[in-house]
Each structure stands twice: as structure tokens, then as C-alpha cells.
Design a protein that fits this description.
29% of the residues lie in helices and 26% in strands. By secondary structure, it is α/β, with parallel strands linked by helices. The chain has two domains: 3-19 and 231-444, Alpha-beta prism (UDP-n-acetylglucosamine1-carboxyvinyl-transferase, Chain), CATH 3.65.10.10; 22-217, Enolpyruvate transferase domain (UDP-n-acetylglucosamine1-carboxyvinyl-transferase, Chain, Alpha-beta prism). The longest helix is centred in the N-terminal third of the chain and has 13 residues, at 22-34. It binds shikimate-3-phosphate. Shikimate-3-phosphate (S3P) binds at residues 23, 94-95, 166-168, 171, 193, 313-314. Shikimate-3-phosphate binds at residues 23, 94-95, 166-168, 171, 193, 313-314.
């Protein structure tokens, strides 16, 4: 298991092409498997999570040819999947298990799907409940967790209001809706990312979106497509964080996904003083993309709560890590969902940042990081380097790395290879953007 040592200081500058968006890659892979013919996907995410989705598709009898970020998937139509003799393994990926559960519920065979120890701790009732309402027979030894045994069969359309804002659950229901008898309607009172709706349309499904509800008609003939995945904004955000922590930084990020259900993080950063600009915004394959530039600027700080939370759920760890670099700090509420992500993100982050000397308060639904209150807007965070443990959680590892850039002294991040779950090249990219002026040393800790 690799440890990463981050030395502070310097600046980041340069141009970055982001790897493909993880959320969109999952959806394109699943829909390509259900389409009638071969799809080609470019800039497919190199994230381990998306490799898990591809592997699950292979287990279900779909030919997948992945050459780097260019993936060819030979779809066999809605009824072309084959039963897997072995358990299907979603590894660390919540999106994979939840979205595939919707597909598996509509098959004529039984599947068992599970994941790694982190995924087996995460709540699945939120997806099992609506699928059961659609007629699915899903069993699990521990009512709410993977492994799930999904006995596929006849499904009926439902009209379902999401009790927890979750794009993964919404997506599972919409995918099951492809197989249902009748119309399926999902209602959400808090907006979540809409990549599934957009991707379903790209592949030819009949999806309508009206205000707070999505309707899908069953049994479309999905058409194979040639698609390019936009760059991953949720990965870009960690590089943006580096630029905001390190004075004299300036970055240009190309072809970043700018879907409005994902860009709330940029609005928030701009509202607290970040110098961020968007250019060349255009629509491609139903998704907005564009170039994002960021320059270092003093940050005031601010608070996040309510409906904002769902739209920047994956960025909250990085925003919290910026707290000590803002004048007034960052306060987050209504984010109890963070406790059931790859780790308990509130606790893991609070522990790591506390070890680095941050002053913070933890709440059941969030946390508050004190700012530097210098009033001068300089990044005098007073953090100090420490040994930190992200508990195998990719986004916590990257958030702590951002904080480490502005600390005094080196920070050692345990099991840093976990960044591969979403952004395998994170440390390399960061190093390149720092122009090699600050040394980062990887140490192999063979005994862990
Ligand atoms: C995702 C939705 C979010 C997010 C996750 C990816 C998706 O999860 O945190 O990283 O691709 O739909 P929830 O749906 O559980 O909120």
C-alpha cells in the first residue's frame, strides 16, 4: 500500500485535459450494453469504479473491448444479457451496484451482486424498496446491505417520490422502467444529477422531464451510439482547490463537463471569491462541456445547506478542506448523506483535518471549519503537516492532499492509491502542474 508524502508550497499552473466523467461513463457503459449493436465511447473514465461497471457487463455476457480510454461495447439489446454463474462484483462502486440492480430486476434470470467491504456497509434499502414496488424479488441476508440476490422478472411501472435525494436511486428506477409494464415516474423534491435522463435520450429511450418529475416509457429499442465523455468536474475540483490554496496559481481545464446539475460547486466557489471563468461552453451528446480557468484569489468562506448539498455532494470534502484557507471558514449542514459514502466522510475528514491542526466542529449533518480570520485574505491556514488516514476513501485522500499543500511541513497520506477509484492520475497531474518545484515522494509501505 502506497503512502504519499505531500510537501507544501509552490504554485500550480498549466493546462489540463481531465479524464472522463465517472458518473457519465457508468451510464454510457450500461446503456451501450443494452443497445442493439456496438457503441464506441471515447474519453471513458479511467476510474476503478468504471472498470468495475465494465467488468460487471462482461460477467453478464457483453463483449467489452477497453483500450485505454476508448471503449467498445457490443450491446445485445434489452433482453440480451446472460446470467452470470458467479457473483457480480461492483467492488467500491455505489453507482454500479445501485444502477445495475435496476437492470437486473428486469431480467429473466437471477443474479447476485456484491461489493467490497466499504460497499457492503452502504445502505441498499433505498434502491431495493422501489424496485420491490415495481415487482422485483430481491433478497439480502442483512435486509439493507449487499450482497443482493435479485430474481429478475416481470416489472410494473410505478410513480415514486424519492425519499432521499439520490441520482443513483433515480437511475436504478429509470433503468428498471425500461423493462416495466407501463409508464414509470420518478419525482424528486431536490434536484440531483440528470445524466441518466440525458443518456437514455441519447440512446433513443422516450424520457420526458417536467419540473420535478421524470417519466420513462418501457421497452424502447436502444440504439448504439458513438459518444465522447466530458471531463470529470468532480475530479477537476481538486485541482481547482490546489490553485485556490497555492498563491500565484493559474490553471486552464479543457473540455470539462458543465452539466448544470453538477456546477453548483463552481457557483459556490465564485460566490466566496474564487476567480473562476467559463469559456467555449457548448453542448455535445446532450451534455454541456466547456473550459474552466481558475486563478488564485483570497476566499471569504461561507455556508452550504439545503438543496445545494445534493448538487455538490461529491465536492463537499474538498470545500471543507478549503475552510482553513478562507477568512471566515466553511460551514456545511444537511449533509448527513456524507456519512454513508465510501467512508463516513464527515468523520474521516474531521479526523484528518484535526490531525493537521484545523479548528473544526463536527455535527451529525456536517461540519464547520474555522477560517484564518486574518482579514487580509492571505492563505495563512496554520495547518501543519501530519500523518493522515483517508480510510481508503478517494475523495478524502484528495481533499487532504489539497489541505496539505497549504500546511507547514510534510503530510503523509496513508493508502494513497485509493485515489484510483475516481482519479488515478491525481498525484501525477498535481506534480506536473507544480512543475516539479516541490518534491513529492512515494514510499512503498510493504507491511502497510
Ligand atoms: C452519483 C450520485 C451520487 C454521488 C456519486 C455518483 C451518480 O450518489 O455521490 O458519487 O453517478 O449518480 P447518490 O446518488 O447516492 O447521491
Amino acid at each position: 500500500m502506497a503512502r504519499k508524502t505531500i510537501s507544501p508550497g509552490g504554485s500550480v499552473s498549466g493546462v489540463v485535459e481531465l479524464p472522463g466523467d465517472k458518473s457519465i461513463s457508468h451510464r454510457y457503459a450500461i446503456l451501450a450494453a443494452l443497445a442493439e449493436g456496438a457503441s464506441e465511447i471515447r474519453n471513458f473514465s479511467p476510474a476503478a469504479d468504471c472498470a468495475s461497471t465494465l467488468e460487471c457487463c462482461r460477467r453478464l455476457g457483453i463483449a467489452v473491448d477497453a483500450k485505454g480510454e476508448h471503449v467498445r461495447i457490443a450491446g445485445k439489446g434489452l433482453d440480451g444479457l446472460k446470467a452470470s454463474r458467479r457473483t457480480i462484483d461492483a467492488e467500491n462502486s455505489g453507482s454500479t451496484i445501485r444502477m445495475l440492480s435496476g437492470v437486473l430486476a428486469g431480467q429473466r434470470f437471477t443474479s447476485t451482486i456484491t461489493g467490497d467491504s466499504s460497499l457492503r456497509r452502504r445502505p441498499m434499502r433505498r434502491v431495493v424498496d422501489p424496485l420491490r414496488q415495481m415487482g422485483a424479488d430481491i433478497r439480502s441476508t442483512d435486509g439493507d446491505r449487499a450482497p443482493l440476490e435479485i430474481r429478475g422478472g416481470k416489472l410494473y411501472g410505478i410513480d415514486y417520490t424519492l425519499p432521499v435525494p439520490s441520482a443513483q436511486v433515480k437511475s436504478a428506477i429509470l433503468l428498471a422502467g425500461l423493462y416495466a409494464d407501463g409508464l414509470t415516474i420518478v419525482r424528486e423534491s431536490v434536484r440531483t444529477r440528470d445524466h441518466t435522463e440525458l443518456a437514455l435520450r441519447e440512446f433513443g429511450a422516450n424520457v420526458t422531464v417536467a419540473k420535478d418529475q421524470v417519466r420513462i416509457e418501457p421497452r424502447p429499442k436502444l440504439q448504439p451510439r458513438q459518444l465522447i465523455v466530458p471531463g470529470d468536474l468532480s475530479s477537476a475540483v481538486f485541482l481547482i482547490g490546489a490553485a485556490l490554496v497555492l498563491p500565484e496559481s493559474s490553471l486552464m481545464l479543457h473540455n470539462v463537463g458543465l452539466n448544470p446539475t453538477r456546477t453548483r460547486v463552481l457557483d459556490f466557489l465564485i460566490s466566496i471569491g474564487a476567480a473562476i471563468n467559463l469559456a467555449s461552453v457548448q453542448s455535445r451528446d446532450g451534455e454541456l462541456i466547456g473550459d474552466v480557468s481558475v486563478r488564485h484569489a483570497p476566499l471569504v468562506g461561507g455556508s452550504i445547506s439545503g438543496a445545494q448539498v445534493a448538487e455538490m455532494i461529491d465536492e463537499l470534502p474538498m470545500l471543507a478542506a478549503l475552510g482553513p484557507f478562507t477568512e471566515k471558514g466553511i460551514e456545511i449542514h444537511d449533509a448527513q448523506e456524507l456519512r454513508v459514502k465510501e467512508s463516513d466522510r464527515i468523520a474521516t475528514l474531521a479526523e484528518g483535518l484535526r490531525q493537521m491542526g484545523a479548528r473544526l466542529e463536527e455535527f451529525p449533518d456536517g461540519l464547520r471549519l474555522e477560517g484564518h480570520e486574518s482579514g487580509a485574505g492571505t492563505a495563512t491556514s496554520k495547518l501543519r503537516g501530519a500523518k493522515v488516514n483517508p480510510q481508503g476513501d478517494h475523495r478524502i485522500a484528495m481533499a487532504l492532499a489539497v489541505a496539505a499543500l497549504g500546511a507547514e511541513g510534510d503530510t503523509v497520506i496513508k493508502d494513497s492509491e485509493c485515489v484510483g477509484v475516481s482519479f488515478p492520475e491525481f498525484f501525477k497531474t498535481l506534480e506536473r502542474l507544480r512543475g516539479g518545484e516541490v518534491q513529492e515522494k512515494v514510499q512503498e509501505d510493504l507491511r502497510k
